[in-house]
Automatic annotation (TrEMBL):
GO MF: phosphatidylinositol-3,4-bisphosphate binding; phosphatidylinositol-3,5-bisphosphate binding; phosphatidylinositol-3-phosphate binding; phosphatidylinositol-4,5-bisphosphate binding; phosphatidylinositol-4-phosphate binding; phosphatidylinositol-5-phosphate binding
Name of the protein in its database record: SESD1 protein
SUPFAM superfamilies: Spectrin repeat (SSF46966)
UniProt cross-references to InterPro entries, sorted A to Z: CRAL-TRIO_dom, Spectrin_SESTD1
Domain CRAL-TRIO: residue ranges: 1-142
Pfam family, one: Spectrin_SESTD1
Keywords: Repeat
Family: Belongs to the SOLO family.
PANTHER family registered for this protein in UniProt: SEC14 DOMAIN AND SPECTRIN REPEAT-CONTAINING PROTEIN 1
Coiled coil: none
Length: 685
């Protein structure tokens, strides 16, 4: 039964040849009957009308089996069978019995039955229509035919089932309402087999059948295939055409469904984004309205806002993805979805941009608040530093340090002014942003919250202004005090300088003012110069006294005790007393010298003929006494009130001055002698 087949050969009436090989094993008539029914169902009605020639190969079977098979043909295919050729074995059957039986049953069977040897089968059928088993040349591979037939049967079954399923799906998609279409597609959306696989199987089968039709199977040996009706090439082609048509419609249905599903998914995601942004997202922003009252508070609010932004960024990422998907669908150009897609895109963009703007506004507001509090903190620290500097009592060492401190104070005050101006600018900018917050509003009235923020900002600026004003007042007082201290130090320095100048004048008086003049005129000139020199010293002393009096007034104003004025005044008085004593001594010497030179010059200039000269003996005694007194003073030091002594010039200088006086005294003495000689000679004569 395995090789029961239609070989593709034809008899002389162009009828198909059916070969039934029998074997030694027990043959099941039921299976044989089913197989015959299947084989006879393959040809078309046109082929069946031409009749069949049945070859029963009984060479390996018993006569009774052959007889049963022949009789079964009467029940299975009586009308289609025109000739039955029973191939007998090489052993001889009972010819008489067999021949008699077939001949006897001819009329009842309805077809002719002949008993023939395999080598004589060509008398009834052309060799080219017989296979090699019966001495023919027809090439036939039963296993190949069976495999192809199985493939065909499988393809037919799967394609027919698939066509029904696709038709159900496609027809369901053509129903009236959208709801009915979706329900139908949902129930029968996926076919039981893959259409691509079935189509590929059909194409491979058709290609194989068409190729075998014109090409030999073994090295170019000609092979006569079965008719198209047997191989069902038209049926395969028809099924493929139907499958392609239904599958194309099915793909369109799937595309529409996929597009609708994608659109619904996009719409669902859009609503998720919109609902979250307008719901929890907006609620998060509504609860965040403060700006903090310090840097730390503002930073905490910024951190909280960053957490809110992080949550929003996840939804914004979904927005970007959805926007790309919507743009791709819009580019596809389906007019029926353009309006809906654009509406979704617009709604999504409006909500996202509005929420992003609110987040950006809040971030800018917090950043402005942080900058405001930073400037306020810096300004507060500057004011604290300035106040601390003002609260410390000033104890500078000199005027330069006071000037440096005053410069530093002015720089700090200038820095405070700049900081306060910066605070005002930051505060005004922050107030402007807060005033614009009402335009966002986060869906609520922010008047109360804004008032708290505005009051806080204005309060900070007013407090800083008051602190700055207090510091300015203290700076004014400190500036006046420091300027007075600078003046005090200046007065003390100038007073000390006056003492130095007066000491230098005293030193110059002692060391350089030593000449007494060579005559009365020169001595008078020296005396006049000395008086002017004394006037300079007097002015210096008076200047020093005035400076010291000013220091006393300044110390009283500053409520402090000068560190240097305490010993400057005694020094000034001491030097001035020394200068006064020295000056008086100098005046006395010059006046004595003037008297000495005047008298001496008068005596030396008198003529001997003048009678009065001889009578003025007292003048000589006076000039001698003055000269001796002057010489004595030159050798005596100046004694100061404190008991100290000081000489004019050096000993050599004094010796030179004394020598000059002695010479003049000698001249006077000589003049005296000259005047006395005539007086002595007169009595003798």
């Amino acid at each position: 039964l395995l090789f029961l087949s239609e070989t593709g050969g034809k008899d002389r009436r162009s009828g198909l040849i059916l070969t039934i090989p029998l074997c030694l094993e027990q043959t099941s008539m039921d299976e044989l009957s089913v197989t015959l029914d299947y084989l006879l169902s393959i040809p078309s009605e046109k082929c069946k009308a031409r009749g069949f020639t049945v070859i029963v190969d009984g060479r390996k079977s018993q006569w009774n089996v052959v007889k049963t098979v022949v009789l079964m043909l009467q029940n299975v295919v009586p009308a289609e069978v025109s000739l039955v050729c029973v191939v007998k074995p090489d052993e001889f059957w009972d010819k008489k019995v067999t021949h008699f039986c077939f001949w006897k049953e001819k009329d009842r069977l309805g077809f002719e039955v002949i008993l023939v040897s395999a080598n004589k089968l060509t008398r009834y059928i052309e060799p080219c229509q017989l296979t090699e088993d019966f001495g023919g040349t027809l090439t036939y591979d039963h296993m190949d035919w069976l495999n192809k037939r199985l493939v065909f049967e499988k393809f037919t079954k799967e394609s027919t089932s698939l066509l029904d399923e696709l038709a159900l799906i496609n027809n369901g998609s053509d129903k009236g309402t959208q709801q009915e279409r979706e329900r139908s597609i949902d129930l029968n959306f996926l076919p039981s087999v893959d259409p691509e696989t079935v189509l590929q199987t059909g194409h491979e089968l058709l290609s194989e059948l068409q190729q075998r039709r014109f090409n030999g199977s073994d090295g170019g040996v000609s092979w006569s295939p079965m008719d198209d009706e047997l191989l069902a090439q038209p049926q395969v082609m028809k099924l493929l055409d139907s499958l392609r048509e239904q599958y194309t419609r099915y793909q369109e249905v799937c595309r529409q469904r996929s597009k609708r599903t994608q659109l619904e998914e996009i719409q669902q995601k859009v609503m998720q984004v919109v609902n979250w942004l307008e719901g929890p997202g907006s609620e998060q922003l509504r609860t965040q309205w403060g700006i903090g009252d310090s840097i730390r508070a503002s930073q905490a609010l910024q951190q909280k806002h960053e957490e809110i932004e992080s949550q929003h960024s996840e939804w914004f990422a979904v927005y970007v993805e959805l926007n790309q998907q919507i743009a791709a669908l819009l580019n596809a150009g389906d007019e029926e979805d353009l309006v809906e897609l654009k509406a979704l895109q617009q709604q999504l963009s409006d909500v996202c941009y509005r929420q992003a703007s609110q987040l950006e506004f809040r971030q800018n507001l917090l950043q402005a608040a942080l900058e405001f509090h930073s400037v306020a903190q810096d300004l507060s620290q500057q004011l604290d530093g300035l106040l601390g500097m003002l609260c410390v009592d000033v104890a500078p060492a000199d005027g330069a340090s006071i000037q440096q401190t005053l410069k530093l104070l002015e720089e700090k005050l200038k820095s405070v002014d700049s900081g306060l101006q910066g605070l005002r600018e930051k505060g005004q900018s922050l107030l402007d942003q807060i005033s614009n917050q009402a335009s966002w509003a986060y869906g609520k009235d922010v008047t109360i919250e804004n008032k708290e923020n505005v009051d806080h900002i204005q309060g900070v600026m007013e407090d800083m202004q008051l602190r700055k004003q207090r510091c300015e007042d203290m700076v004014d007082v400190r500036r006046l005090k420091m300027l007075q201290m600078v003046q005090l130090f200046k007065c003390e320095e100038d007073a000390a300088q006056a003492v130095e100048w007066l000491s230098e004048l005293l030193d110059a008086l002692l060391k350089t003012h030593i000449r007494l003049g060579d005559d009365a005129q020169e001595t008078k000139v020296l005396l006049e110069k000395h008086r002017k020199f004394v006037d300079v010293a007097q002015s210096t002393y008076d200047y020093g006294r005035q400076l010291l009096q000013a220091t006393v007034v300044l110390c009283q104003s500053l409520r402090c005790t000068s560190r240097s004025s305490g010993d400057t005044l005694p020094r000034l008085n001491r030097v001035w007393k020394q200068f006064t004593v020295t000056s008086e001594e100098r005046v006395h010497r010059l006046e004595t010298a003037v008297a000495f030179h005047s008298t001496a010059e008068k005596i030396l200039q008198e003529c001997p003929e003048q009678p009065d000269a001889f009578n003025d003996v007292d003048q000589f005694d006076e000039i001698e006494a003055v000269g001796k007194s002057l010489l004595d003073r030159l050798t005596v030091p100046v004694v100061y009130p404190d008991g100290s002594e000081q000489y004019f010039g050096s000993p050599s200088d004094m010796a030179s001055a004394a020598e000059h006086i002695r010479e003049k005294m000698k001249l006077v003495s000589l003049k005296k002698q000259q005047l006395r000689q005539p007086e002595a000679t007169t009595p003798e004569s």
